[in-house]
Write a structure and sequence with these properties.
By secondary structure, the protein is an alpha+beta fold. Among the domains are: 90 residues, Topoisomerase I, Chain A, domain 4; 77 residues, 2-Layer Sandwich (Gyrase A, domain 2), CATH 3.30.1360.40. Strands 3-4-6-5 form a four-stranded antiparallel sheet. Strands 1-2 form a two-stranded antiparallel ribbon. Strand 5 and strand 6 form a beta hairpin. Helix 4 packs parallel to helix 9. Necessary for protein synthesis in mitochondria. Functions as a ribosome recycling factor in mitochondria. Keywords: Protein biosynthesis. GO terms for molecular function: ribosomal large subunit binding.
């Protein structure tokens, strides 16, 4: 009996092992499942082919240095960079007026009118000097005489930089030198001047003072001078009108009809100014001739 029991137990154990070998552990009861130690799951590194990897360009050392300068505003290089930006700012500001002038209204004649007024004030003051009792000789004209202090040097000074010019009444003028060394050069300069062509006289009371008498100009010379100034005035008006018209023609967006209208407006404005010049010329010539009588 014992031998049979041992044989049966062996048969059962062999059968159990066979079943365990052929049956998956999932289908077996929990008590009959073989024990396996739990191992930690390790994630294998993901391999990526070169075709799927992003392209990385090599960084330039100059770019890295510029970024470092921006991050450190107290650095010397960063300061230089900011100075360059500041220096570049005026250039942008200078470009703004150019762009604004390019987009200006071509029918606007105010800039040309302003030039005409400036020219008129200049020549009107020159013509007014011819009507004065002393003619064109005044403090400005006498003070503008070039004086050379050193014969070996070509450098010259205006007389009003070396002396004070003042009228004494009538046609007499006083030249008071600042230094004794300037007296003789002033006398030589006045003597060589084509407008005066005379030698100033020393004052007996003050060795630094010179006196001179301005001879009145002839009526014909004054009239000729007035007409020459008016001719120069007319030429100046024509030049300013031509420059403005040339500037307008650079605008390629204008049509032929627009250019024709602008040209007519410029001609009308120029003719009006020419009438002003003609009237001024008649007025000055009449005043000069009446003064001579």
């Amino acid at each position: 009996m014992n031998s049979l029991r041992v044989a049966n137990s062996l048969v059962r154990s062999n059968a159990t092992v066979a079943v365990l070998r052929t049956t998956p552990s999932v289908l077996l009861p929990l008590a009959q499942r073989p024990w396996h130690p739990k191992l930690s799951q390790q994630t294998l590194p993901v391999r990526r082919s070169f075709s799927h990897s992003p392209k990385l360009s090599k960084r330039n050392r100059k770019e890295e240095a510029e970024e470092a300068e921006e991050e450190d505003p107290r650095g010397k290089k960063g300061g230089k960079k900011s100075n360059k930006k500041e220096k570049g700012a005026p250039a942008q500001q200078q470009q703004e007026p150019q762009s604004s002038s390019a987009s200006e209204d071509p029918f606007n004649l105010d800039p040309l009118i302003a030039l005409f007024q400036k020219t008129e004030s200049h020549y009107a003051s020159q013509l007014a000097l011819l009507r004065s009792p002393t003619g064109r000789f005044n403090v400005e004209s006498i003070g503008a005489i070039p004086v050379s202090l050193d014969k070996k040097s070509s450098e010259t000074y205006r007389l009003q930089e070396l002396a004070t010019v003042a009228p004494l009444g009538g046609r007499r003028w006083s030249i008071l030198a600042f230094e004794e060394a300037s007296v003789k050069p002033i006398i030589s300069a006045v003597l060589k001047s084509p407008d005066f062509n005379q030698q100033p006289q020393r004052s007996e009371e003050n060795p630094l003072e010179l006196t001179m008498t301005v001879e009145p100009e002839k009526v014909d010379d004054l009239v000729k001078r007035a007409k020459d100034l008016c001719t120069e005035w007319r030429n100046k008006l024509r030049d300013e009108t031509h420059k403005h018209e040339t500037h307008v023609k650079k605008n390629k967006s204008l049509l032929k009809d627009d250019l024709f209208k602008i040209k007519e407006a410029l001609k009308k404005l120029q003719d009006e100014r020419m009438k002003v010049v003609a009237n001024k010329e008649k007025e000055v010539v009449a005043a000069i001739q009446s003064k001579a009588k």
